[in-house]
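Teaching note: in complex prediction, the entire set of molecules is handled at once rather than each chain in isolation. The prompt given to students was simply: 'Predict the structure of this complex.' The entities are:
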Amino acid sequence: MVADQRYDYLQRVRTAMSAGVYPLQWLVDAPFRASRWMNESVTDREQLRSENTRLSNELRDAQVSLQRLAALAAANQRLRELSDAADDVAKKRLVTEIMRVDLDPLRHRVLLNKGQRDGVFKGQPILDAHGVFGQITQVGLHTSEAILISDPNHAIPVRVSRSGLRTIAEGTGNLNKLNLPFLTGEADVKVGDLLIASGLGGVFPAGYPVGTITRVERDPAQTFAKVEAKPSAKLDSDYEVVLIWYQPPKIEPAIAPPATPSVAPLTPEQLEAATKPPADAAAEPPPPSPTTAPRVAPTAPAAMPAPATPPHASSSATSATEPAAPAHAAPAAPPPAVP
Amino acid sequence: MSNRIGFLRVLFTSAVALLLTIVPLPQMLNFGRPDWLLLVAIYWALNAPSVAGLTYAWICGLILDALIGTLLGQHALAFVVISAVAQHFQLRIRVFPLLYQAWAVLLMLSLYHFLLFWIDGIVGTAIASWIRWLPALVGALLWPVMVAVLDTTNRRIR
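The expected output is the structure of the full assembly:
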């Protein structure tokens, strides 16, 4: 058990065993596949036609919004080239089906019908039509096991889309709830805010929706606010999800600031921020552990020079004496807790 | 009961138990899904320890681990422990009336879930919810039914 938990020695054994139990899983899944196939083959004309109309309407809408997206993507690409940041959009996608097989009800895992033979790898991000779904934890020959973002052993680095605040969303064991334990009482977050993947962990590509804030409870006596979110992905009703391959950004361009701020002379405000102790100056980075977080005071104006610079704040704090330090001096982000 | 036929029967019941373990159920029922394979393993440990011994329990546990993707060896360890307990008290439990047997099974299932819970706690976040113990209760309630079914088929074949 230790060998399996700590090291990857048993990877081959697991792969072989998962191939061994595949017939069982196939057998259990078969009736559902058959019923779906039957459903598809015996739908009547009227139904097909209405579905066709609906789909073409949806396609038209999607294409209209895509027109704008193309222009935005091009602009984004130009800006990214300017700042030397890698573009981390999906390079390849693969639609997979979730097998109708129940695993442990206490752990939010699902079985996908693609495995090693299709190039699936451990830690691969999974999306559905609405947002981030989970990641691969075990790869078998024909199947792979995925952990959902709502599993209590899963955490995903996220950003509040409106304020740019970065934090970590943990699963709770409830399919409709994520927990954001590292947000202070003064954190700029409110109900209805969209959470997007921040891409810091190097597992999930940045920018995909993760969830919406459903509850913010601030207690002045507590350092941390109680913040909950609802996952965007339809974790409980999906039967098709998308595996994606993407080029993870080189080291972490998401937090390494562009070259310009370090060349530009610091404003007095920034200097003030920079000379403060790191824990205060780092206005927003996700606290690696609760112990460093309480001192973060995001609302203090001096501690937050400008909305665009927070990523820079921590690096300027560590290199306060040499403002021209290269951008890569930024400390690596704490790796998110993935299972 | 010749060993060969006994072996086939053990294999068949185990396969059915494995299927029942992963058949999709609605969310609420899923939480109360009994540990079919363990119930079958206990049954055979009580009734045919020479055919289905500790090795059988260990292999069952490993297959279960592979099937539902838990830590390799977690269920195997729990299965071996429970099977050993069952074999140790085999002669006594076998002559119990069904109701007492169900109590004994409830104890064994609780121990099983405690072991799983304990290992979960060592390697990560264990969910300490009452719902965790539901399968043990359901399993004990189903025990008389299962014994009746298996005993009847066994007698008919024998």
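Point out the following to students. The first strand of chain A starts at residue 90 and ends at 97. Confidence is low (pLDDT under 50) at residues 252-339 of chain A.
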